[in-house]
Design brief:
The complex is a heterodimer of chains A (366) and B (284). Chain A is α+β, with helices and mostly antiparallel strands and 366 residues long. Chain A has helices at residues 41-49, 71-74, 91-100, 110-123, 139-151, 169-186, 197-203, 221-226, 231-236, 355-365; strands at 3-12, 15-25, 30-34, 56-61, 64-65, 76-79, 157-161, 189-194, 206-211, 214-219, 241-248, 251-253, 270-276, 281-285, 291-298, 302-309, 317-321, 333-338, 342-345. Chain A has two domains: 3-226, 3-Layer(aba) Sandwich (Rossmann fold), CATH 3.40.50; 239-365, no CATH class. In chain A, the strands form four sheets. Chain A has a six-stranded mixed β-sheet with strand order 6-7-8-3-9-10, sandwiched between helices. In chain A, strands 14-18-15-16-17 form a five-stranded antiparallel β-sheet, with no helix packed on it. A four-stranded antiparallel β-sheet of chain A has the order 2-1-4-5, covered by helices on one side. In chain A, 40% of the residues are buried. Chain B has 284 residues and is mainly α. Chain B folds into two domains: 17-48, no CATH class; 60-279, Orthogonal Bundle (MetI-like fold), CATH 1.10.3720. The longest helix of chain B has 34 residues, at 60-93. The chains are: A alpha+beta (366), B mainly alpha (284). The A-B interface holds A 49-51, 71-78, 80, 82, 84-89, 97-98, 101-102, 132-138, 149-150, 153 and B 173, 175-176, 178-186, 189, 193-194, 197-198, 276, 279-280, 282-284.
Chain lengths: 366, 284
């Protein structure tokens, strides 16, 4: 099952939700659509499922035009964010649904359906839940049932919308591992939507980062983590500290920054913007330093320092493992040693005055 | 001293004040306005004695009235069940110009004095009325027949079905239908297997209320029915006639019978509802 998507656009009234999506997915691949809310990732998933229709573009699966095909006939497995289990049916009936609604001539015999359901219940390790109603299940159990219901019709393509969105942190981590194993065994092509980068990186073979209706970057998890292609991806992946620097012979430099650990880059000389993860920065006590510690909070494992940049009057936040942190108090002066970061031409960045607004937006969407 | 204070029981405080007052007023109201008259009716009925009661109820005229009332109410309810469900569906699922007006129109049977409705319907279905002029040449007589009775009942009780189904349908998460679509179900199957089971409890309430209301409908019916004894005389009207004849026992017996039918219906509907909602009862 090869999926080819080209120039896909979708607008809701005035809002452009998808602004030209090009993407192809190979057979057996596990792909994550990663992005903040409003980036269009769920709309893209729904278009692939046939639950929404684009205004223009191409969606081909195995060379067949899926925009001419109704959702009922696409035979995909879709797992909804809130699972959408039919509340008045038992787990068994929920899983059997896709088989029992087939037209009479292709519908398996009742015994065959029952057998298939039992087999799936075993595979998902929930045979004891067969006769319960969805209201009697925990979030994690519901997710398994929803997956079972989607897999019962033997789909070649599985689509999952925020598969862990409705679960609490511990259950999420356990189920992530389990889901990865299940998907590997099932061997179907899978696309899932998430706003959680950890989830996307841990599960997917390939991650598609989306922002504002466009694909910002496609790549393997490490690739995207280490080399975000655009300032948007950098910010979205947690590079929230942005410092203006000047490039000279491939090296970034700025007063009050010790950039010796950063590798040379092949970029033209001139102003640039350095994007850093708060944890990739070491504070070094320095009476002549450019930064003043405004306050120090502890999250247990980490110390979070809010700094005041005397040069730009920005207030970057950095984090450091508590046991490695030098003794720092509010009012101390420091300089910074970035350990790893990403440089973009200064024009590509957004002026620091706008950055806090973007950050607030991002936090509210998480 | 401190041990005494510690041993004193702490009375939990209610967060919302006024429980005693509001509950007291409500219960008094229910007692005076609802339960007391019902109790009086039952007591009056009990005075009659079983044989006399049986005699009144099996009198041909009473039986005919009950039969007419029940069949017409059943016809009206059957019509409302289908049409009310359709109406609720249209009002919830589609957007069209005039939707709000149509929605508001649905309340007219509730707001309109039933006598006014009865008069209007009689005028329409009379031989020289708009509908009557069309139907009577075709040999269809509505006024002074069971059809007219059923029509008047349907008119006054349709909002019960629409207004009970509508909010439930509105709250139904479209994800269930999306899920059914991705699983390969076609529209009618989705309605039958996913949507209808979800609205069934509300639908049953609406249908029961519609039937109960039709049984008791008086104002609208008496104008269109013609009220011929043994033919188009409804039970409530017969009770009024008995009352005017100073036959209090006869009136009470008929009223009591209607009351019992309504009660049985409500209990049955509640049991069915509980059964339809059993999947919600158990578990978290």
């Amino acid at each position: 099952m090869t999926i080819t998507i080209a120039h896909l656009t979708r607008r809701f009234g005035e809002t452009e939700v998808l602004r030209g999506i090009d993407l192809s997915v190979e057979k057996g691949e596990l792909v994550a659509l990663l992005g903040p809310s409003g980036s269009g990732k769920t709309t893209l998933l729904k278009i692939i499922a046939g639950l929404d229709w684009p205004d223009a573009g191409v969606l081909e699966v195995n060379g067949e035009d899926w925009l001419q095909k109704k959702a009922q006939d696409r035979r995909i497995g879709f797992v909804f964010q809130n699972y959408a289990l039919f509340p008045h049916m038992t787990v068994r009936d929920n899983i059997a649904f896709g088989l029992t609604v087939r037209p009479r001539d292709t519908r398996p015999a009742p015994a065959a359906i029952a057998g298939k359901v039992t087999e799936l219940l075993q595979f998902l390790q929930i045979p004891q839940l067969a006769d319960r109603f969805p209201a009697e299940l925990s979030g994690g159990q519901r997710q398994r049932v929803a997956l079972g219901r989607a897999m019962a019709i033997a789909p070649e393509l599985l689509l999952l919308d925020e598969p862990f969105g409705a679960l609490d942190a511990q259950v999420r981590r356990d189920l992530r591992r389990w889901l990865r194993e299940v998907l590997q065994q099932a061997g179907s092509t899978t696309i899932f939507v998430t706003h959680d980068q950890e989830e996307a990186f841990e599960l997917a073979d390939r991650v598609v980062v989306m922002g504002a209706g466009r694909i910002e970057q496609v790549g393997r998890p490490e690739e995207i983590h280490d080399h975000p292609a655009t300032p948007f991806v950098a910010r979205f992946l947690g590079m929230t500290v942005e410092l203006p620097v000047t490039l000279h012979a491939g090296r970034a430099g700025a007063p009050g920054l010790d950039t010796a650990s950063l590798p040379r880059v092949a970029m033209a000389d001139g102003p640039a913007m350095l994007f850093l993860r708060p944890t990739d920065i070491t504070p070094v006590p320095d009476p002549q330093g450019r930064f003043t510690v405004a306050d120090v909070t502890s999250t247990g494992a980490l110390l979070r320092l809010r700094l005041k940049d005397d040069l730009t009057s920005a207030e970057p936040e950095i984090e450091i493992a508590r046991r490695l942190a030098p003794p720092l108090r509010a009012g101390a002066r420091i300089h910074l040693r970035p350990e790893a970061g990403r440089l973009f031409p200064a024009t590509a960045g957004i002026p620091p005055a706008v950055a806090p607004a973007i950050k607030a937006l991002k936090e509210s969407s998480l | 001293m401190t041990t005494v204070a510690a041993a004193a029981r702490i009375r939990p405080k209610r967060v919302l004040p006024g429980f005693g007052l509001t509950m007291g007023v409500t219960l008094s109201y229910v007692g005076i306005i609802v339960l007391l008259p019902l109790a009086a009716l039952v007591l009056k009925g009990a005075e009659i004695g079983p044989e006399r009661f049986f005699a009144i109820m099996t009198a041909p005229r009473t039986l005919a009235a009950l039969k007419l009332t029940l069949s017409a109410a059943a016809m009206a309810t059957a019509f409302n069940a289908v049409y009310g469900l359709l109406m609720a569906w249209v009002l919830v699922r589609y957007d069209f110009p005039g939707k709000r007006i149509l929605d508001a129109l649905m309340d007219i049977p509730f707001a309109l004095p039933t006598a006014v409705a009865g008069l209007a319907l009689s005028a329409l279905f009379a031989g020289n009325g708009w509908y009557g002029a069309l139907l009577e040449p075709m040999g269809i007589q509505v006024i002074f027949t069971i059809w007219g009775v059923a029509f008047a009942m349907a008119f006054t009780s349709i909002p019960f079905v629409v207004r009970t189904v509508q909010p439930v349908l509105e709250d139904l998460d479209p994800q269930y239908e999306d899920a059914a679509v991705t699983l390969g179900a076609h529209p009618f199957t989705i309605f039958r297997r996913v949507v209808f089971p979800a609205i069934l409890p509300a639908f049953m309430v609406g249908v029961t209320l519609s039937f109960a209301r039709s049984l008791g409908e008086f104002g609208a019916v008496v104008f269109i029915a013609g009220n011929l004894p043994m033919k188009t005389e409804i039970a409530s009207l017969l009770a009024v006639i008995r009352l005017e004849e100073y036959d209090y026992n006869g009136a009470a017996a008929i009223a009591l019978t209607l009351l019992m039918i309504a009660l049985v219906l409500l209990v049955a509907s509640n049991l069915l509802q509980a059964r339809a909602l059993r999947y919600k009862g158990r578990g978290a």
